[in-house]
Amino acid sequence: xxxxxxxxxxxxxxxxxxxxxxxxxxxxxxxxxxxxxxxxxxxxxxxxxxxxxxxxxxxxxxxxxxxxxxxxxxxxxxxxxxxxxxxxxxxxxxxxxxxxxxxxxxxx
Amino acid sequence: xxxxxxxxxxxxxxxxxxxxxxxxxxxxxxxxxxxxxxxxxxxxxxxxxxxxxxxxxxxxxxxxxxxxxxxxxxxxxxxxxxxxxxxxxxxxxxxxxxxxxxxxxxxxxxxxxxx
Lengths: 108, 115
Description:
Largest sheet of chain A: 6 strands, mixed
Helix content of chain B: under 10%
Strand content of chain A: 35-45%
Strand content of chain B: over 45%
Oligomer: heterodimer
């Protein structure tokens, strides 16, 4: 079965502090993992995907197949990073499975 | 280049009724996916259409059906509405479902309330 878990519903950090949003998945195969973000009053949008191995807005995420994790990290959080973050997996066929989301609040 | 649009923005129906939600894909996109997002949860995949054919389906009953038109716009139909169908329905379009680098672009959603 395909499943994505995000253990934290809400994560609050101070501006300039490091941030790590956790994501774990279950999938019997080679998954494609993504992070999506939704800023206040905006649409859901792709932040980054593991196959690109890119850094977007200072965020990075490494796929750890041994731990079945794809945690999102940023060394210094900014207030504009406050948003809802969803981890997602693309598995069998073209099905996307989203996690429940973590709301990141960056305090001044 | 126009983005993904959805109509209507909000909708109120009663149990047992039928509803049709509409989505216009981004220019040049031939793939449309539909998601249901209940309050406090992540989006749940309903199904995907690629060049007018269903190309994948999530764990939703047959009363959820869809259609994609030659211009790649799409409809989501839900029959025999239940209270649990109350949710935000999201549509996402992409260039082509078989491309590994494919990116989904989401619409603003339709908020459905079933009373």
